[in-house]
Amino acid sequence: MKSIFIYLFCFFIGTINSFAQDFKFAQLDQNIKINNAASPGLIKQKAELILGYRSRWTKASPFRDLMISYDHKVKNFNIGTSIIQNDAGKASLKSTKVLLNFGYKKQLTESGDFIALGLNGGILQQRFQEQLFQFDNQYTEGSGYDSGVDNGEDFSNTNQVLPVLNIGLVGKKYFNRLSITLGVSLNNINKPSTGFYTEQMESLPMETALFSKITIPWSERFEGNIFLAYQKHKFSNERIVGFQLNSKLTEANWIHFALSSRIGEAIVIESGYQYQQSTFILSYDIGNNMLSEIEGFKNVFELSFKNNF
Questions:
Q1: Mean pLDDT across the stretch 141-166?
Q2: pLDDT of the residue at 13
């Protein structure tokens, strides 16, 4: 229990100083969706609705990520919106991102080669409740914690709203039956000024995300996908390697299994079922970093639903 408390305290202090909290989804398709503004260019039907829920470390502190996204195609253009929220319980920094999505897709060949450009922008709200936290100044020798003692912190605000702007590019090329999809995105390109202390303002750093997906249709019933991704954050670089197998049961029914690795962090197992235009996916993270050795930081699961119209 002491280890959990120390981690949560350090996590909050680090978050306040970096003014950022990652929005994270581990499922391969969801990861592309939240990191590349041009991902709506991959929509095969006229419109797409995605719902996502990720729960982390439920025994220690209920870290939750929520997402709802809708995109609609009009000829070569797409427009939509995304809402993503990160919540680690009452005593935490809560982040909510609301984005408007715009994109253009250009088909290059009759075989299906295309290139898509995407731009999304909106707001990022970050907030916390100061009174729910305990600080060193509120502990006295002999009597312990006293909520009536001033915490000694000079927060200029506990709620901030920042403008954010992201741009992405996705392209797909067919080689007979095999196809390769590549994507690159730059997020927070406007680098808004952020901070909860007046004298410690800084710019929200720009982040880079790259991904590739190789699709190999082995037969009429089986299709394989190889994923590679790299994401550069302010304090860490995330590398992802994954394989996904799709199997057609009938014309209207598909199942898929996937195994991926966030190198140095976790192994992710996912399983999904598609009926007509609706897809359900459940995944579970098996941690292999230092947090996984602490009791309470081992349970991470994710659920998503996608429907094409």
A1: 77
A2: 42
Neighbours of 42 (CB within 10 A): 20
Which pLDDT band holds residue 3 (cuts at 50, 70, 90)? very low
Cβ contacts of 233 within 8 Å, gap of 6 or more: 22, 205, 207
**For residue 11, what is the enclosing H or E element?**
helix 2-18
Break the chain into its structural domains and give their ranges.
2-308
**Does 79 score more than 60 pLDDT?**
yes
Name residue, tokens 């390769």: 180
- The sign of the CA dihedral 216, 231, 158, 133 is positive
Q: Which residue has the higher pLDDT, 139 or 40?
A: 40
SS3 state at 122: strand
Q: Which fold has domain 2-308?
A: Porin (2.40.160)
| Total-model pTM | 0.83
The DSSP-derived string for 172-196 is EEEETTEEEEEEEEEESTT--EE-S
